[in-house]
Amino acid sequence: MALKRVFLLRSVAPRVAALSTKPQAQEQPPASPEAIRGCGAAKAVRPPVPDVDFTNTQEAYRSRRSWELVRNLLVLRLCASPVLLAHHEQLFQVARKLLGQRMFERLMKMTFYGHFVAGEDQESIRPLIRHNKAFGVGFILDYGVEEDLSPEEAERKEMESCTSEAERDGSGANKREKQYQVHPAFGDRRDGVISARTYFYANEAKCDNYMENLLQCIEASGGASDGGFSAIKLTALGRPQFLLQFSDVLTRWRRFFHQMAAEQGQAGRAAVDTKLEVAVLQDSIAKMGIASRAEIEGWFTPETLGVSGTVDLLDWNSLIDSRTRLSRHLVVPNVQTGQLEPLLSRFTEEEEQQMKRMLQRMDVLAKKAKEAGVRLMIDAEQSYFQPAISRLTLEMQRRFNVDKPFIFNTFQCYLKDAYDNVTLDMELARREGWCFGAKLVRGAYMAQERDRAVEIGYEDPINPTYEATNAMYHRANRGTRGWPGAKLR
Ligand SMILES: Cc1cc2nc3c(=O)[nH]c(=O)nc-3n(C[C@H](O)[C@H](O)[C@H](O)COP(=O)(O)OP(=O)(O)OC[C@H]3O[C@@H](n4cnc5c(N)ncnc54)[C@H](O)[C@@H]3O)c2cc1C
């Protein structure tokens, strides 16, 4: 196994939104620096960064020297060659033999490494960050580490780490929907994906190791410049089984809400505009035999819903919150079998511990980021992990985005439900008074997602065309800018 520490730098395009959803009254400029509190206040002390117009290529590439542009073009062209990609290891071996190790390394640093990698430590990344900053280009520091793992090993690790103890011994865990079950043909998640890093779970010690590396990345980001970002992937921090199981639960719960909405004649509405009549909802649930009438009345009290008499998806989601014990006893209809099934699986003691440790690692990283003044971007990953990743990110935002946005979620606009996801999170931030932070992307896993949906047999989560993805991207972008109380940095 060859491990090498490198920091990858992603230039920040202006689609990173840090939005204040706090009441306007808290957003007045502070009287003095000590009084700085609230999302809007931070703007007053940060020197203005000139905006880069990315539609004007001459301006967008002003920070790059001519030889760098030639190098970048060459590297990207070479990377797009299927023949070269298929034989790159052999070609590297030949080049190493012909040039010798030192010359080979120099060549790599001048070409591929130089294009993709910012440096190996805090010191070496500084000049590039300073240079970019002078041209108004920010940065997101990503920890890149090479791990030699064969496709077979990757598949074996994935199958093992995505299956629960109860599923292994067949002792009656509820059956996950197809999308949230692991499949050997897609066990190697690196297939067909261009991404900074794919993590495979080995054991808890390895996750601690990844966490240490990410802590160093955050430190380097903080040490290199003010106002930087670090990117992390939650699949680095624990057993992916939990992400799959939790995603399954969240999706089934949400689908159940939409099923009820359709019964009330609200099919097709944007999630944030869908509001169910409580009395009708209670009737439907009682008829389905999911819970007794008295139990259902206890779910929807004035404390949980206010006096509106309606339930929206945010109220609905709050019922499943870890703070209530309701979900432990809850059954919902499985759309594939039509049977009522428990919403939550039972975990073994060890699995509970593993899940807690994953949350603890997230906590350690978020605290470190806050201490170092670094904003943390949580990358979006495969759609079968994403509902859980988004939900855990939201929990971190609630805790850490009190005065300003430290935790940024990522929304993939190639997903059919991207607009609903981004607007619901913004509305929740507005209601609860914390600062919303988001990165909008199109999405990096399209080919793999589509193949998986066809092979396993569930609805393709991706928009049907590139144009539809673009339309979703612009809609989400406009949606976040136009939200009440929103401020774009
Ligand atoms: C700073 C940064 C952070 C990123 N973080 C993430 C992340 O956390 N998670 C993530 O998934 N991606 C992430 N990405 C990747 C990003 O989403 C894009 O996939 C990637 O940048 C390629 O887009 P492009 O602009 O080069 O190509 P473009 O051609 O503009 O876009 C390609 C993308 O459009 C979509 N698309 C293309 N054709 C179709 C079609 N027929 N139907 C539907 N959709 C289509 C797909 O998403 C495809 O990947 C990140 C990228 C950057 C630069």
From TrEMBL:
GO terms for cellular component: mitochondrion. Keywords: FAD, Flavoprotein, Oxidoreductase, Proline metabolism, Signal. Residues 1-18 form the signal peptide. Residues 152-180 are annotated as: Disordered. It comes from the Eukaryota. Pfam families: Pro_dh. Pathway: Amino-acid degradation; L-proline degradation into L-glutamate; L-glutamate from L-proline: step 1/2. SUPFAM superfamilies: FAD-linked oxidoreductase. Residues 153-180 have a biased composition (Basic and acidic residues). Its cofactor is FAD. Residues 202-476 form the Proline dehydrogenase domain. Converts proline to delta-1-pyrroline-5-carboxylate. PANTHER family: PROLINE DEHYDROGENASE 1, MITOCHONDRIAL (PTHR13914:SF0), PROLINE OXIDASE (PTHR13914). Belongs to the proline oxidase family. This is Proline dehydrogenase. It comes from Mus caroli.
